[in-house]
Amino acid sequence: MAEDPGEEAVRRTAAARPLEPVDRAILHILQADGRASVRSVAERVHVSRANAYARINRLVEDGVIRGFTTSVDHERAGQGTSAYITLKIVQNSWRTVRGQLEELPGAAHIALVGGDFDVLLLVHTPDNRTLRELVLTRLQAIPEVLSTRTLLVFEETDLSPGTPLPE
After folding, report:
1. Which residues contact 65 (CB under 8 A, 6 or more apart)?
2. In the sheet that 107-112 helps form, which strands lie side by side, from edge to edge?
3. CA of 155: how far to CAs of 47, 69, 122, 134, in Å?
4. What gap in Å lies between CA 104 and CA 85, rounded to an integer?
5. What is the pLDDT of residues 5-64, one digit of tens each?
6. Which of 43, 40, 42 is nearest to 51 (CA)?
7. DSSP state of 78
8. Which of 16, 54, 110, 135 lies in the 20 to 30 Å Cα band around 97?
9. In whole angstroms, what is the distance from residue 78 CA to residue 71 CA?
10. Are the CB atoms for 150 and 82 separated by under 8 Å?
């Protein structure tokens, strides 16, 4: 059953419970291997399976764990061109623009930021021609997008899997 959007908003705005060292250890393990079994996690953090299962469920329910994903080598998956695209947008149009950016093929990360531009978008495309079409045809056709700047990625390293959380 899908969660009521109102309940999700309440959950996200509710004060976060502090994470215990065991919770941090569980997160570290699952960040490195989202397919780790509950038994394996329990053994590695020295708690019972029932305790590990309950903690993982609480982390999911509290929104600390937002999902379980697969790390993809985009080049080997046929998405060999990556770029960060900065966008300046019309003031107060973030929600509208975000919805349109989420629909873009190859959009991997979208962030509302402060500074010289408003939005930072990471995209993966098969080639430069597809990237060009995405920017010139799709992005610049969004009425609320005032300008774009494309930064081609030559090489990237993903630091997020297994990165320990600060205390």
Report:
1. 27, 30, 56, 59
2. 107-112, 119-125, 81-89, 145-153
3. 40, 21, 13, 20
4. 13
5. 555 555 555 667 789 999 999 999 998 888 999 999 999 999 999 999 999 999 999 999
6. 42
7. T
8. 16
9. 14
10. no
